Amino acid sequence: MHLLQASVSLSVFLRVCSERTKMATTQHFICVVIIISSLSGVDGYDGYYTTLADQCRFSSWDLSDLEYIRSYWFNKAEFIRFNSTVGKYVGYTEFGVYNAEQWNKDPAQLAMMRAQKDRYCRPNVQKEINKILTKTVKPVVNLMLEQASIGGQPAVLMCSAYDFYPKMIKLTWYRDDKEVTGDVVSTEEMANRDWYYQIHSHLEFTPKAGEKISCMVEHASLKEPLVIVWDPSMPKPERNEIAIGAAGLVLGLIVMIAGFVYYKRKCRVQVSVPKKSMVWSLDIDAAHKNMKNVLWLLNSVTMRCDKTAMKTPVKQLGHEYQA
Fold it and tell me: What residues contact residue 155 under an 8 Å CB cut-off, 6+ apart?
């Protein structure tokens, strides 16, 4: 049962006017004070709240069971009501019964209240239906391989639609542009608890080379059906992982080579010549400048990087260089 409250916060507060010294059961009367406001922050008469609420109730889209209800409340208790289906006022307390009898004797009052269903409820309800209940949100569709074909077992594809509104939706499988009716298992539309829905459909199949498998989605938010074709190549997330791994490998090699070059340029090479029992420390740059001497030492040279050599003088064939 849908309940439509007045869009304008139309709260009519009734102030009960009674003479405390002359109060009698036959002398009940009320003075209506209309205030367009909300309940919060509004003081009642002598600390009490008396309110009026208009309601439009319906449960069918064609509004065939639409009814208008006006309720009068005092201290959170309803004491009188007009229902368009009943067509008259009904009291629930002694005070409400008395006033219902008085108001039901007035034909003009009853005619005005009976007309409220078509004058007030019907246009406002239809406006709310057009504004809210016909709102549509396009689904987000995803098609993925849930289970690969291993050991002769069939593969499983899953077509999912997320965050769509309204609830009604249709998912259809196609193989080579022919509708698939067998080997399909679908869930019901599941609510996300935020006015949106999701649905999942599974297709079991045996892969064939060159075949085309697609999932078609039909929904009120789509001007035409949305068709998603399955790509049997490597899924995009896995391709991204491989690309990231390859880029990391290349970057690592570049850093390693750069470090090696930097290390060799900053090192000093200690050269040992066993035949002459002497040790020469050569700078790499100096060795390149004197290639003849280096070639002469190749047969009997043992090289190692000595960090302490960086602070010692370097001798090469009688010449001394300060590192």
Answer: 145, 147, 148, 149, 204, 205, 206, 207
